[in-house]
Design a protein that fits this description.
The chain is α+β, with helices and mostly antiparallel strands and about 260 residues long. The radius of gyration is 40 Å and the shape is flat.
């Protein structure tokens, strides 16, 4: 087996290398955008693929768990292979980050200025424009602190940005119609007291609440005792009816 071009041989299916099972027989074409990086006995065992911002790893066959359990070279290879695979899958490339990222999860309060970060790599100058339901409303050039724009009226908007290399970013955001004072939930004791007085009411504190009597306890209802089949009269009536019915049918047959 081979691990990439020019690498030392790895799992050969001997006792030292527990074999992988259920591998595809013969040549197998790699899926679009992937390349075989690990083989066993001339057959592909693992593929890696990369498309835009996604990275995928495809492992074929079964029996991979035997390598870390075998110890020695198989276990050492598995540790190095799995660690490198995890690093590759989780590698962060700044060029893959979105070109713009809005603050506040894309929700702005009335009067709040537009702010957006530029987390990825960009080729300055970075031009941006904001368009709403009625067309373009603002535009400018991003500075060292990112994109800074004016406060906008309530509505849904789209922020579009493009750098000198032609890389583009797009994000939607909304300017809410609520105001921060509407989110104030603290109680107004004086206002509540004034509202209660004209009707003869009063605002009571937690220490002035009248004590409520505990609800009367309900008498316990004893459960009905169980009764056996021999203690119920209907069982005897049913048995008598069956015997009489059998006797009547037998007498009718004898007469016929």
């Amino acid at each position: 087996a081979e691990r990439g071009a020019g690498s030392a041989p790895v799992p050969d299916g001997t006792e030292a290398w527990p074999p992988l099972e259920a591998l595809p027989a013969g040549a197998l074409a790699a899926p679009p955008g992937t390349a075989a990086v690990l083989g066993a006995g001339g057959r592909p065992a693992a593929w890696l693929g990369e498309r835009e911002t996604r990275r995928v790893a495809i492992g074929l066959g079964t029996g991979w768990y035997r390598w870390p359990l075998a110890g020695g070279d198989p276990a050492a290879f598995w540790d190095a292979w799995s660690a490198a695979l995890v690093r590759w899958l989780g590698a962060a490339d700044s060029s893959r980050l979105p070109l713009v990222r809005l603050a506040g999860e894309g929700r702005l309060a009335p009067g709040e200025p537009l702010r957006a970060e530029v987390p990825g790599e960009s080729s300055p100058p970075l031009r941006w424009r904001v368009s709403g339901e009625r067309g373009e409303v603002a535009e400018g050039t991003a500075g060292p602190a990112g994109i800074r724009g004016p406060a906008l009226p309530a509505g849904v908007y789209t922020l579009e940005a493009e750098d000198a290399a032609g890389r583009r970013g797009r994000a939607r955001f909304v300017v809410e119609t609520w105001a921060p004072d509407l989110a104030w939930t603290a109680a107004d004791p004086e206002g509540l007291r004034r509202a209660a007085e004209p009707s003869g009411g009063a605002l009571l504190g937690s220490g002035q609440l009248p004590s409520l009597a505990a609800p009367p306890a309900r008498p316990a209802v004893p459960a009905a005792p169980g009764r056996g089949l021999g203690e119920t009269p209907w069982s005897y009536l049913l048995a008598v009816a069956l015997v009489l019915g059998d006797w009547a049918l037998g007498a009718r047959r004898r007469r016929g």
